[in-house]
Specification:
Protein name: Glycerol operon regulatory protein
Pfam families: HTH_IclR, IclR_C
Order of helices and strands: HHHEEHHEEHHHEEEHH
Number of strands: 7
Keywords: Activator, DNA-binding, Glycerol metabolism, Transcription, Transcription regulation
CATH class of the largest domain: Alpha Beta
Function: May be an activator protein for the gylABX operon.
CATH superfamily of the largest domain: GAF domain
Strand content: 15-25%
Shape: elongated
Helix content: 40-55%
Distance between the termini: 29 Å
GO molecular function, one term: DNA-binding transcription factor activity
Number of domains: 2
Number of helices: 10
Radius of gyration: 23 Å
Length: 253
């Protein structure tokens, strides 16, 4: 039975490459055409494959519907939270998770630092979109025309001398962030607070959230915080892997 399931599932990535006929499926699986036909008929009955008028098979609508339903029911905050807690326990600094929704970038989770100096940020509160590291990441993931349209609509308050002053500067920063794959806010919102952020991506490679580590410079310098970037990126990659289903969750010992 496990071999039958394995063969049936092996058909799906083949058809993801494009429609295939019975002979091609049989050759890929290394089985007789009668075996391949039996598997295809079962998948067809469940809507996972569809037989075209030219007798070739392609992926069925039911498969896409299930994938869409599964994605809609995934809670990125629930998946990410244990990873954020572990990162906080390792470095001791404040950890945030943010998403881009309806023109705003919002914090949806936060794990506070272990030291007395706390950041004034709240879950559900929009971030300072022109300077925040998580906002730069999320906006950098937009297609270029959309990035430009967003940048030109924004106001550019000068929170500090390091704040982004105008749309052109913001677009240059977004291009840099898009290329390097991570972002910083080094005193752009508050002179005394530095932040480094990394992207959380879905199965399609698009960004679904951004996570960051922030700390006041009375606790660590900007260079010391930047030294945590590999750890931050590994954490973001782990969340991405679990969210997209690429990384199986290990059963507790």
């Amino acid at each position: 039975m496990s071999q039958t399931v394995d063969r049936a599932l092996s058909i799906l990535p083949l058809l993801a490459e494009g429609p295939a006929d019975l002979g091609q499926v049989a050759d890929r699986l290394g089985v007789h055409k009668s075996t391949a036909l039996r598997l295809l008929r079962t998948l067809h009955e469940h809507g996972f494959v569809y037989r075209q008028s030219d007798q070739r098979y392609r992926l069925g609508a039911r498969l896409f519907a299930l994938a869409q339903e599964a994605m809609e029911n995934l809670d990125i905050r629930e998946i990410a939270h244990p990873h954020l807690v572990r990162l906080n326990e390792t470095c001791g600094h404040t950890v945030h998770l943010a998403v881009h929704e309806e023109g705003e970038v919002l914090y949806i989770d936060k794990v506070d630092s272990r030291y007395p100096v706390r950041m004034y940020s709240r879950i559900g509160k929009p971030v300072a979109i022109t300077v925040a590291a998580v906002a730069k990441l999320l906006l950098a993931d937009l297609p270029e025309p959309e990035r430009r349209a967003v940048a030109e609509k924004l106001d550019y308050p000068l929170y500090t001398a390091r704040s982004t002053p105008h749309a052109d500067a913001f677009l240059r920063e977004l291009a840099k962030v898009r290329e390097q794959g991570w972002a910083t806010d080094l005193g752009g919102h508050e002179e005394s607070i530095n932040c480094v952020a990394a992207p959380v991506r879905g199965a399609d490679g698009r960004m679904v959230a951004a996570m960051s580590v922030s700390a006041p410079n009375v606790v660590v310098t900007a260079d010391e915080l930047l030294a945590l970037l590999p750890l931050v990126r590994r954490t973001a990659d782990a969340i991405s892997g679990e969210y997209s289903g690429r990384t199986p969750v290990k059963d507790p010992a």
